[in-house]
Design brief:
mainly alpha, 2 helices, 65% helix
Length: 81
């Protein structure tokens, strides 16, 4: 047989629902972590690109709100770890 070996599991019928639930949880958690990571990267890039921008009164141009979002995402991601 050529190609990538595939892991095969044999599970008793009575154990299958618990295994499926565990796999669903694992997939959801992995997807959530990927989304948090992607959002952090985008927020970091936005903050870096607009860090020097100021309004007419010298205030950061929305950077405080973006920084709060970034802080929230970091907290959310830390809770997942």
């Amino acid at each position: 047989m050529e190609g990538t070996p595939v892991l095969s599991m044999v599970v008793d019928d009575e154990d299958r629902p618990g295994l499926e639930l565990d796999l669903d949880t694992l997939v959801r958690e992995g997807a959530r972590r990927m989304l948090v990571t992607a959002l952090k990267v985008e927020v970091d890039a936005y903050v870096a690109a607009h860090a020097e921008e100021r309004d007419s009164e010298g205030h950061g141009n929305g950077s405080r709100a973006v920084q709060q979002l970034d802080d929230h995402l970091r907290q959310f991601g830390a809770e997942a770890s």
